[in-house]
């Protein structure tokens, strides 16, 4: 009556037949192949950034010797620190301005039923779909008018305005969706206790919406980091470039050509963003789907 | 004219004005009878009544009251002045309240006998009563606390060292006691924990409470026994009492006053229904006639904006270069050489927007006056400033807080957008840069009939754009979803690692990876070399249209799949396992489970975001421009402006930025924007977000 131990199947899943085993093997192959497909280019970038043997062009079989040469070049010979500063300045300003506008509009659209609400909601929806390049030609003229009237108005400020204004519509939608999911009873309780509308905003809405506001701030902050087109068009001098526009000069301009330095610069941006995205991936995605699915 | 008066919740009130009552009776009868003769008789009766108005008993009483009131008010002014003199040296706020109280006390006396005569007297009497009865307490409160505040301030200044040190000593002793109690309590708690009566978490909670209580006790001891601290707190307390507490009490009085206004109707003996039309040209005037002075000030600001800013600007005054609305017609035609059509166009649009804003102010003002007069005729009193303020802050709140956003959207988005729309109807091209003219729809015609330098390539680019959008996005979605599906299989080990790697393309800023791939796919680039070695061909990816296209589609798959992977992984993990178990029991195959359970759930939840991916790629400028600048060039198909991977948006970029073909660029932009808007409109019209609201 003894049973051999090896014959006993103890998993809570069905045992695999041959076909299943082949399938599993194929699955692993696919996953490993895709892992290689993702990691290999990234590895190339890291290697090129640290490879002292690479000259202006990244080429194969150049050998490898570890060095910080390209990073040094980046910080001494190019305007990289300046670009970094510009980008952070533009990003932070955009995030703050967007947040101020959106926290109010999202609140208003979620909590109040006012005349013209639905129509304007539809308008917001449609405005949001129009790409920001649509006003391209006018931006120049507007800039020249404003900067003539208000001399300290810089091109970067114009960019900040365009980013923030462009962000209002979509983010209002996202925040409205988020606030809609929170019961109005909190507001009503506060109002019964004598809170004015502004106090409800300050004491109830802001704390509750904080997670979503953080996500909106983060996306608005990352926008200028990721965007290449508008900085390229609106900013004219390399001094005022953002990272995206600046780094492109390293692989596109014949004079400044230095591909390993580009790899080094890209790496410096990629590391913090990868950390950020990996840690916050759930929140970042929930922000998007909340606004869209709702 | 109605027989009765009504308030805002339709309570009916009898008329007090007997003359009006009589005439209303006759009006009523006229309306009811059909007999012509009786009607004529009634009409002559009405006329007689009107004629005899000055001799009507009630009217004479009313006139007398009005005269009395005038002399009373004159006297009151003088008396108030005298009273003010006697109040010299009193705090400003207190003086104000006392004056109010004084006036109210006089008013109560004067208006009391006239309460039955007319509603105006009644409302004044009741308002005065409210103040008379409730202001006394506020004044007392204020007086008392002001005195206390002064004493406390003095005490803060004159420090008594002996008392201070004595107080400190006493506080020390009491603090020591508190500390002792705290320690013994803590010990007891720990004992309880050791005996197993409470959990670690409970211990921590209790501890926290004990610490908080100790802190509170200590601050109470310090504030009560150390004179300097005690006085400091007293000053704070009394400052609050004299400012915010008083404000609250006054708000209560205001509220009671507004109650009076709401419940005592107004009775008018003159026709004011024409106010709205007659005053619509000057916002603020109608409010003045309605005796709403603070509201008038607000609307006068609007009038200032209209008459001193918007209209002059639209007429060409104070423009940067152009001349207001007319510049939209002329587009700098005939202006000096330095003037640019573009500036004329932008300023013209700004003029139009200012005019639109003005019109909306006119409408708001007209409606406001109309509503107030209509209500007043019915019997509802116009709101006082307290009520108006409240309704602005309540009903107007959503408008007030969205106003800044509206202004920004208007000027930063709508002005450029309108400019683009208008620009697409002009002939702005390299030959007409500083001066251009209206051109009708010829740009659109050129595009539609594929004529001219730009029109011919438009359709070629459009078709590649569509192919690109559909193929690249679908590829990325399939790839991402497939990977998510495989990774989600519970037999796969190392899920965390694979998931961590697979979202990397999403986490690294796309422009970096695109540029780096662009480097690697150059003629001497690493990837090209490797591909050459494998296939044995000599690839020249960036100069071969077909190869570049394939590569950027693959690249977009690499980039876009990560996002789809992330989305579908999230959904897949949330699908309850019992669904699959039930399917299993029913004998479903793996394929059926996928097609009937997994796919519908994932698609349903991510559909809007996936649609978003299509629009994103439709406008994906970065990958096209950064990878190969839209190239390689292929003049036989795409002309001199565009390359063979250019999609519409990069084409627009090249048209406007590199080749100064702004007008055609604008036309293409318009086509894209309209298509996108239509696409989203259809998608979102049926979405939950709109149906629920």
Distance between the termini of chain A: 62 Å
**What is the helix/strand order of chain A?**
HHHHHHHHHHH
The strand count of chain B comes to: 2
Q: From the helix content, strand content and strand pairing of chain A, which structural class follows?
A: mainly alpha
Q: Estimate the helix proportion of chain A, in percent.
A: over 70%
Summary, kept brief:
Chain A has 294 residues and is an all-alpha fold. In chain A, 73% of the residues lie in helices and 0% in strands.
3D structure, described in words:
- The complex is a heterodimer of chains A (294) and B (693).
- By secondary structure, chain A is an all-alpha fold.
- Chain A is 73% helix and 0% strand.
- Chain A is built from eleven helices and no strands.
- In chain A, helix 3 (80-111) packs antiparallel against helix 8 and helix 10 (243-252) packs antiparallel against helix 11 (259-293).
- Chain B is built from 29 helices and two strands.
- Chain B has a two-stranded antiparallel sheet.
- In chain B, helix 6 (161-195) runs antiparallel to helix 7 (200-225) and helix 27 (648-658) runs antiparallel to helix 28 (662-685).
- The model of chain B has no long low-confidence stretch (mean pLDDT 88).
- Chains A and B meet through helix 1, helix 3, helix 4, helix 5 and helix 6 of A and helix 13, helix 15, helix 17, helix 18 and helix 19 of B.
């Amino acid at each position: 009556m003894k049973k051999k131990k090896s014959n006993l199947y103890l998993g809570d899943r069905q045992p695999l037949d041959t076909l299943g085993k082949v399938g599993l093997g194929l699955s692993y192959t696919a996953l490993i192949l895709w892992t290689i497909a993702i990691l290999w280019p990234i590895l190339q970038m890291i290697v090129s950034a640290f490879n002292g043997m690479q000259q202006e062009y990244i080429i194969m079989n150049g050998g490898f010797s570890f060095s910080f040469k390209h990073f040094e070049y980046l910080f001494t010979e190019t305007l990289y620190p300046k670009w970094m500063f510009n980008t952070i300045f533009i990003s932070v300003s955009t995030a703050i301005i967007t947040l101020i506008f959106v926290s109010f509009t999202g609140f208003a659209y979620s909590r109040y039923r006012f005349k013209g609400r639905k129509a304007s909601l539809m308008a917001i929806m449609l405005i949001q779909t129009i790409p920001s390049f649509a006003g391209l030609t006018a931006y120049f003229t507007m800039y020249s008018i404003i900067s003539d009237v208000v001399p300290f108005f810089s091109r970067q400020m114009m960019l900040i305005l365009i980013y923030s204004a462009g962000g209002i519509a979509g983010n209002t939608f996202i925040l409205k969706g988020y606030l809609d999911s929170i019961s109005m009873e909190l507001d009503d309780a506060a109002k019964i206790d004598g809170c004015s509308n502004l106090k409800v905003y300050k004491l109830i809405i802001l704390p509750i919406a904080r997670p979503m506001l953080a996500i909106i701030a983060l996306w608005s902050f990352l926008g200028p980091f990721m965007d290449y087109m508008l900085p390229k068009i609106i900013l004219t001098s390399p001094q005022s470039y953002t990272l995206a526009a600046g780094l492109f000069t390293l692989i596109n301009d014949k004079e400044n050509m230095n591909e390993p330095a580009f790899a080094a610069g890209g790496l410096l941006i990629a590391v913090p963003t990868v950390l950020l995205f990996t840690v916050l991936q759930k929140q970042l995605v929930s922000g998007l789907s909340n606004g869209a699915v709702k | 004219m109605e027989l009765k008066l009504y308030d805002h919740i339709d309570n009916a009130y009898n008329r007090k004005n007997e003359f009006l009552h009589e005439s209303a009776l006759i009006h009523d009868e006229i309306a009811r009878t059909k007999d012509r003769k009786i009607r004529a008789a009634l009409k002559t009766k009405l006329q007689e009544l009107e004629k005899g108005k000055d001799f009507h008993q009630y009217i004479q009483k009313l006139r007398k009251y009005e005269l009395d009131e005038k002399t009373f008010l004159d006297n009151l002014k003088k008396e108030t002045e005298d009273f003010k003199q006697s109040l010299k040296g009193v705090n400003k706020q207190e003086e104000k309240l006392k004056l109010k109280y004084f006036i109210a006390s006089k008013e109560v006396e004067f208006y009391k006998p006239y309460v039955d005569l007319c509603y105006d007297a009644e409302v004044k009497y009741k308002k005065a009563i409210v103040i008379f009865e409730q202001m006394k307490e506020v004044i007392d409160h204020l007086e008392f606390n002001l005195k206390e505040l002064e004493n406390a301030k003095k005490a803060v200044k004159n420090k008594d060292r002996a008392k201070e040190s004595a107080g400190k000593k006493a506080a020390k002793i009491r603090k020591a006691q508190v500390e002792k109690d705290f320690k013994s309590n803590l010990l007891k708690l720990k004992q309880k924990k050791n005996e197993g009566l409470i959990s670690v978490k409970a211990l921590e909670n209790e501890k926290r409470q004990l610490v908080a209580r100790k802190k509170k006790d200590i601050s109470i001891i310090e504030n009560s026994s150390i004179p300097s601290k005690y006085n400091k707190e007293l000053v704070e307390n009394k400052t609050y009492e004299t400012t915010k507490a008083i404000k609250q009490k006054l708000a209560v009085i205001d509220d009671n006053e507004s109650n009076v206004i709401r419940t005592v109707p107004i009775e008018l003996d003159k026709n004011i229904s024409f106010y709205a039309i007659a005053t619509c040209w000057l916002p603020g005037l109608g409010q003045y006639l309605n005796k709403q002075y603070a509201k008038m000030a607000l609307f006068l600001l609007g009038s200032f904006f209209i008459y001193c800013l918007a209209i002059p600007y639209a007429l060409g005054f104070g423009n940067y270069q152009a001349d207001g609305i007319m510049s939209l017609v002329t587009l700098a035609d005939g202006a000096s050489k330095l003037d640019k059509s573009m500036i004329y166009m932008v300023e013209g649009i700004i003029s139009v927007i200012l005019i639109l804003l003005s019109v909306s102010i006119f409408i708001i003002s007209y409606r406001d006056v109309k509503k107030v007069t209509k209500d007043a005729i019915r019997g509802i009193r116009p709101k006082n400033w307290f009520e108006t303020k409240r309704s602005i802050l309540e009903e107007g709140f959503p408008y007030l807080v969205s106003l800044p956003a509206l202004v920004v959207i208007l000027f930063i988005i709508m002005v450029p957008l309108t400019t683009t729309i208008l620009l697409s109807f002009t002939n702005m091209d390299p030959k007409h840069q500083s001066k251009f003219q209206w051109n009708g729809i010829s740009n659109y015609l050129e595009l539609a009939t594929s004529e001219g330098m730009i029109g011919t390539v438009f359709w070629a680019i459009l078709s590649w754009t569509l192919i690109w959008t559909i193929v690249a996005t679908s590829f990325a979605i399939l790839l991402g979803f497939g990977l998510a599906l495989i990774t989600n299989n519970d037999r796969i080990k190392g899920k965390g690692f694979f998931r961590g790697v697979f979202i990397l393309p999403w986490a690294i800023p796309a422009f970096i990876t695109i540029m780096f791939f662009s480097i690697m796919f150059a003629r001497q680039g690493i990837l090209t070399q490797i591909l050459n070695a494998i296939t044995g061909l000599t690839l020249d990816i960036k100069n071969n249209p077909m190869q570049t296209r394939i590569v950027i589609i693959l690249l977009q798959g690499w980039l876009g799949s990560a996002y789809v992977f992330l989305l579908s992984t999230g959904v897949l993990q949330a699908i309850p396992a019992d669904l699959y178990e039930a399917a299993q029991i029913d004998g479903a195959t793996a394929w059926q489970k996928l097609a009937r359970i997994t796919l519908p759930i994932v698609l349903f939840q991510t559909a809007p975001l996936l649609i978003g991916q299509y629009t994103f790629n439709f406008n994906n400028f970065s990958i096209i421009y950064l990878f190969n600048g839209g190239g390689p060039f292929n003049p036989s198909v795409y002309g001199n402006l565009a390359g063979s991977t250019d999609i519409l948006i990069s084409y627009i970029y090249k048209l406007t930025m590199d080749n100064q073909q702004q007008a055609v660029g604008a036309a293409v932009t318009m086509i894209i924007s309209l298509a996108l808007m239509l696409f989203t409109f259809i998608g979102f019209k049926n979405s939950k977000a709109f149906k629920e609201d």
